[in-house]
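quick q for whoever's on today - can somebody do inverse folding on this one?? i tried earlier but teh output was garbage lol. tokens:
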């Protein structure tokens, strides 16, 4: 998700237009999440999120979830609400990390969450150095800014994806997802205006 510019986020009680988002299922079901509208934000809308989590649901309980380009934190919060053991949220925007913190506190899911305000590549590297491993990694970068290949390479090099884990990358419909060495595409699904590409680690050949 694109980071919000600080000017796009205003204090509660102002008349900013908000994009309505909610937690769809689980312990925080139906709770509204904050995501002030701005030119630099593209939240994953509820109908796309619902389609995504219909596919993720069998894998969520007890998993370690990494939400890259977190924006409002809606994806990682949905994962926690549905039983993920922990979720780490990464976004370089102070405005976004503030919104994520508010949303986690409101949904009472902050106990099993960590927010990292940092550049995506630096954050992934640090997580690898800490020995963190994730079962599901979700990434929703700005579509046109060329993040997919370098982020996948950083994930591979850092070793943060578990052997049986997988990555979900959201992209615009019609985007030809690159085939990266070390990964294989296991499925692609259209979800409204987006396409979700599922990838896992390619088995090393002797």
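ok took a stab at it. sequence:
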């Amino acid at each position: 998700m694109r980071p919000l510019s600080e000017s796009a986020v205003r204090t509660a009680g102002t008349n900013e237009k908000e994009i309505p988002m909610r937690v769809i299922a689980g312990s925080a079901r139906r709770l509204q999440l904050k995501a002030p509208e701005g030119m630099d934000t593209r939240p994953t809308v509820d109908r796309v999120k619902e389609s995504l989590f219909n596919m993720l649901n069998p894998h969520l309980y007890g998993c370690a979830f990494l939400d890259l380009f977190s924006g409002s934190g809606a994806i990682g919060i949905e994962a926690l609400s549905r039983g993920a053991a922990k979720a780490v949220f990464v976004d370089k925007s102070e405005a976004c990390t503030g919104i994520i913190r508010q949303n986690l506190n409101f949904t009472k899911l902050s106990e099993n969450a960590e927010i990292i305000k940092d550049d995506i590549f630096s954050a992934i590297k640090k997580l690898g150095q800490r020995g963190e491993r994730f079962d599901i990694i979700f990434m929703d970068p700005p579509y046109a800014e060329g993040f997919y290949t370098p982020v996948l390479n950083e994930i591979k090099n850092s070793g943060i994806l578990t052997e049986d884990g997988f990555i979900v990358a959201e992209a615009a419909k019609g985007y030809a997802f690159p085939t990266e060495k070390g990964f294989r595409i296991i499925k692609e699904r259209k979800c409204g205006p987006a396409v979700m590409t599922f990838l896992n680690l390619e088995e090393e050949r002797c």
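fwiw Confidence is low (pLDDT under 50) at residues 1-18. also The first strand starts at residue 21 and ends at 22. so keep that in mind when u check it
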